[in-house]
Amino acid sequence: MHRGDKGKIEGVPLTSPINLAFLRIAKRAERQNDATLARTFVDFGAVIAALSSVDHHLIYGRRGTGKTHLLTVLRAGREKEGTVAVQLDMRNLGSTGGIYADPNIPISNRATRLLIDVLAAIHGHLFEQAIADDSKVDLGAAGKALDEFFAAHREVKVVGTTTVETATSAENSYSAEAKVGVTASLTSASFEMGANASDAGKEAVTAKKIVTGQEVHRVNFGSVSSALRKVVATFPGGKLWLLIDEWSEVPLDLQPMLADLLRRAVLPIKGVTVKIAAIEQRSKFLLPDTAVGNVGIEVGADVSAAVNLDDFMVFDNDEQKAVEFFRSLIYAHTCAEMEEANAVAPESEDALISAAFTQANAFEEIVRACEGVPRDAINILSAAAQRANNSTISVGDVRTAAQTWYLGTKDAAVSAHADAKRLLTWLVEKVIKERRAKGFLLEAGLRDPLIDFLYDERVLHVLRKGMSAKDKPGQRFSVYGIDYGCYVDLISTVRAPQGVLDLGDDSVAEYSITVPHTDLRSIRRCILDLPEFYGV
User: Fold this and answer.
1) How far is residue 488's CA from residue 481's CA, in Å, rounded to a whole number?
2) How far apart are alpha carbons 292 and 51 in whole angstroms?
3) Which residue pairs from 264-268 have beta carbons closer than 8 angstroms and sit at least 24 positions apart in sequence?
4) First-to-last CA distance in the chain?
């Protein structure tokens, strides 16, 4: 085996430049620099325009839907305008898996330590901003305010039983010495008398005080808010953007306490804008309490849930929009990777699809397989490119890659949860194999922990919300789709899904996401009977 022309190894096909670019695309936004993230970001539904307002917003989306990418682009945009912006990653804060989640520590102590860590992180970012660019922030003016902000969240109080121990000791000493002598000789005599006397006295008194109790940190929301207001006033335009990422990494029982800190000490400050990225099924912003009032943030009143990334980019929702989005996304990433490798990038999206895939529907199969999740699309594309190697990517490559990705990630996570695995197996049997559909209906507002878990793991996908039917007055439904990986091995068999919903008609054309308005039997056929699964 030896190298031939153009650096190739004879007998061993080398991966094509485009497939190499597909393999190099970073799977997580935090692994790329701001310039690359800004270049590869593809706007959809005017989301950037919606989130560029000074209103406080929640950004919902499951893992891999692009929340971190979106926040990074927002931060970079604000910094380009000269506005101070802080992006906080809750995964890097304190010890979310340790002291915050330790049930042996009282919740009040865990919550207070969390608040202190959050405020300390904010202070650290603001201090770095102040010293990084003196043309943006007057450190002399901001320094005192930052010191005050630091002191406001570092107050410590000792509570509990106190013991005081005092010990006293004294030491006295005295010494005296005298000497008398006579000396005589044959020629003379002399008298000698010597005296040496000393008097030394020493007294030492020591006191020892021991205080025992529990050291408790306190956060005074009023002091924090006042200090932060002074800090923001020293920033250009009196503005600060606080972007909180990975909110759902905070233990669920502590989230309302952290939300309450934001509501009382941060949200009311003029000039401060807060955006929070979270997973909806793993978030708890409000703790109702009739005795002391609600603790936390009220969605819709204190903040707006402006964007839910799960509602976009789903193939069965709008095939054309989904394909257009992912064409732009993959093209932007591919060009960035090829130019970094000094390779010639395709001139257009169409040129990329033509050069990289055997046919257009091979790329569309990636869009269908990823179920609207960009990270899944990139991983499936990477696996398909690795499989194709120096050839163009075929539909078969995509299906094999999608199955490999599903078994290695999603199926492994679901299998660790026995009840969720049992429900998923039941869903595949009832919906896909028996009804030859890939979707089902659940009444809107109906929450089931196993359904939520499967949705969070990206095995179930919400295709549409708030659907109604005339024959079911007063009821609205959500359409759930089962992940592509659950039925990809059935696609070439007689049990392959023929559409989204089974409407009781053998005609493929009748398989639709639209709920019929006249036939009661049809809509009942689509509704998932969860009590049957639970044996109720």
Assistant:
1) 14
2) 33
3) 264/221, 264/225, 265/221, 265/222, 265/224, 265/225, 265/228, 266/225, 266/228, 266/242, 267/56, 267/297, 267/302, 267/303, 268/225
4) 67
Q: How far apart are CA 458 and CA 443, in angstroms?
A: 20
Amino acid at position 180, single letter: V
The sign of the CA dihedral 229, 233, 235, 241 is positive
CA distance 339 to 320: 28
* Token pair belonging to 91: 């995964």
Overall pTM > 0.85:
no
What is the Cα–Cα distance from 451 to 480, expressed in whole angstroms?
A: 10
Q: Which residue has the tokens 């043309």?
A: 135
Q: Which positions ≥6 away from 259 have C-beta within 8 Å?
A: 285, 286, 295, 296, 297
Enumerate the H helices of 303-447 as residue ranges: 319-340, 349-356, 360-370, 374-388, 395-405, 411-415, 418-427
For 106-118, the pLDDT digits (tens) are: 777 788 888 888 8
Angle made by CA atoms 369, 374, 379, in degrees to the nearest 5:
65
CB 385 within 8 A of CB 15: yes
Task: Please enumerate in sequence order all residues whose Cβ is within 8 A of that of 421, keeping only pairs 6 or more positions apart, or say none.
Answer: 414, 415
Single out the residue of 56, 110, 358 nearest to residue 255, CA to CA. 110
> How distant is the alpha carbon of residue 315 from its chain centre?
25
- pLDDT of 31: 75
CA distance 513 to 496: 17
Token output for 463: 């295709």
Task: Reply yes or no on whether the pLDDT at 348 is more than 60.
Answer: yes
| CB within 8 Å of 529: residues ≥ 6 apart | none
Q: Under DSSP, is residue 130 helix (H, G, I), strand (E, B) or coil?
A: helix
* Whole-Å CA distances, 496 to 149, 169, 359, 504: 61, 92, 22, 16
DSSP 306: E
Q: Which two tokens stand for residue 344?
A: 């010639």
Q: Is the dihedral of CA 396, 402, 408, 412 positive or negative?
A: negative
Per-residue pLDDT band at 175 (split at 50, 70, 90): very low
Helix, strand and coil in the chain, % to nearest 5: 45, 15, 40
The residue assigned the tokens 């305008």 is 81
